[in-house]
Amino acid sequence: MSDELKADGQGRSPRLWTGDFYNEGVNAHAGLFDKLGEECGVFGVFGHSEAASLSYYGLHALQHRGQESAGICVADGTEFNYHRGMGLVKEVFNNDNLQTLTGTASIGHVRYSTSGESKLANAQPLVFKYREGDLAIATNGNLTNAPEIKSELEKMGSIFQTTSDTEVVAHLIARSKHDDIVSAVKEALLKVEGAYAFLIMAQGKLIAARDPHGLRPFVAGRLGTAWLFASESCAFDATGGAYYRDVEPGELLVLDMKTGRVTEDRFSPIKQRAVCAMEYIYFARPDSDVDAVNIHSARKRMGRQLAMEAFVDADVVTGVPDSSISAAIGFAEQTGIPYELGLIKNRYTGRTFIQPSQELREQGVKMKLSAVRSIVDGKRVVMIDDSIVRGTTSLRIVNLLREAGAKEVHVRISSPPFANPCFYGIDTPSRTELIAAVKSVEEIRQAINADSLYFLSKEGLLSAIGQTNSEATRGYCTACFDNRYPTVVPDEAALGCGCD
């Protein structure tokens, strides 16, 4: 049946998605679920003859951080070769185009679009020609003062080719009075504010830099004598490499392609450390370690803490796949209530453009998620989820469980109420669209049709993550819960993701 067919009353299915490639032009606001929009992911290789292939595998492991576009740029010592495309990593790259990417150093990127346009021009790495030669940049994060800097640069004659604030950094580097790339990068990074993990190639060097607060995760690894860099440590496992250490906040690592030397440098001292708490709650893969804390273990502790704070007598515990499974296991272990796969995710539907009728939205939900009737029928169910954004997803899932025969549905959330937008690279709705910003917990419970509802306390969350850092909020950014932003933030309507 053609996917162009529309519903005609004859039982034929309406078109539920469109576009030439997976995820074309879709962001979190267009999908079925009101989950937070993924961040982007970066991966770098230095000193390996198969740099492009390693980047391919590394980006594949980071696919959960961005599914809209992918790109790899490789340096062979004299020139850059790069390939970028729209869609998943496996759709963008094949044996033919990977074989053209020859060199021993590379940087790669997977992108998730927020406010920026869905087009190839915004796919990264961004590659430029400037007075000192080729320049390639890939980043995960968001520069909060990028609009102001861009406006100033445009007044001085700069012409921007993308809607990416990553391009702002390229212009700052190109305009620097310093001829050497390291000094130019330092000067550029001192002018920008926000959250970021940068991989930059130019003048025979690969540079890795992390924002002074450490908001975005960034790790270094080794594969024999080669160096690897990634947004998450799970990418090292996919390449046969091993975690070496985290890139420190404000640190600048410089790797010279001619000498093979690695120089540890700084462009800024460490400011108030503020690693994004949502990495532990939702974004990072369970097999990753962020700042030496394993994600799966941290989420299990969140579930255990949630059980201690909000026990409820029930028959089964189930988690909303996939990011809530670890917390659900922890909740079950703490309470002794059996953990069951009460909800099953269909992994092959992709993101969808959904027709506007409510009936079709509900059909779309069932395409992506289904309740296991034999597990929940007649049972008192504890449903564990990692967050509630708008509340629409939670309502649909609770109703799925009830339709499958659940006698009671008790919702437990392994994070505090998400009441404030993020300005650091996470795609979040405006404050007025966040249900926790406009409703009390009881009002949210009623809105999602749950028998009871409890959110993990902020102190419980920080204890579960496990660090004993004495800094404010133990070295984590919890602004989405408590409105305590580690940097000055502008008007929320003015910003998107730095990966755009």
TrEMBL record:
The entry's protein name is Amidophosphoribosyltransferase
Recorded hits in SUPFAM superfamilies, A to Z, give: N-terminal nucleophile aminohydrolases (Ntn hydrolases), PRTase-like
Documented EC number(s): 2.4.2.14
Q: Which organism is it from?
A: Paenibacillus gyeongsangnamensis
Active-site residue list? 40
Domain Glutamine amidotransferase type-2, by residue range, is 40-258
What does this chain do? Answer: Catalyzes the formation of phosphoribosylamine from phosphoribosylpyrophosphate (PRPP) and glutamine.
Q: Which gene encodes it?
A: purF
Q: Report if keyword Iron-sulfur is assigned.
A: yes
